[in-house]
């Protein structure tokens, strides 16, 4: 099902989106590099690494949820799917809270 979608896509649109996404990723890499240099300059390199690792973990969980919803096509009223989505949202808000708390604690 997932890979069958590719046959129905317009090549020019797909190429444009791919190039745009690639440009965004390169730009994001430069931004993260600047943030990392600023964090190291302020003596917060360890905090930056921990936050990056935490957010990467959340990205993996989000990707797993995305793939699950595409591949399994679960019933939206299924209790397992609802529990999975609720856990995902709770983890997301915990990660956001973690980032804000770390930034406030280091500013004290």
Number of domains: 2
Q: What is the typical, i.e. mean, pLDDT?
A: 80
- Rg is 19 Å
Major beta sheet, specifics? none
Distance between the termini: 52 Å
String of helices and strands: HHH
Structural class: mainly alpha
Helix fraction by DSSP (H/I, runs of at least 4): over 70%
Q: Uncertain runs with pLDDT below 50, 5 residues or more?
A: none
3D shape? flat
Percent of residues in beta strands? Answer: under 5%
The total of beta strands comes to: 0
Please work out how many helical segments DSSP would assign.
3
Please give a structural write-up:
The protein is mainly α and 108 residues long. It has two domains: 1-41; 44-108. Helices cover 81% and strands 0% of the residues. The protein contains three helices and no strands. The chain has helices at residues 11-41, 45-71, 79-107. The radius of gyration is 19 Å and the shape is flat.
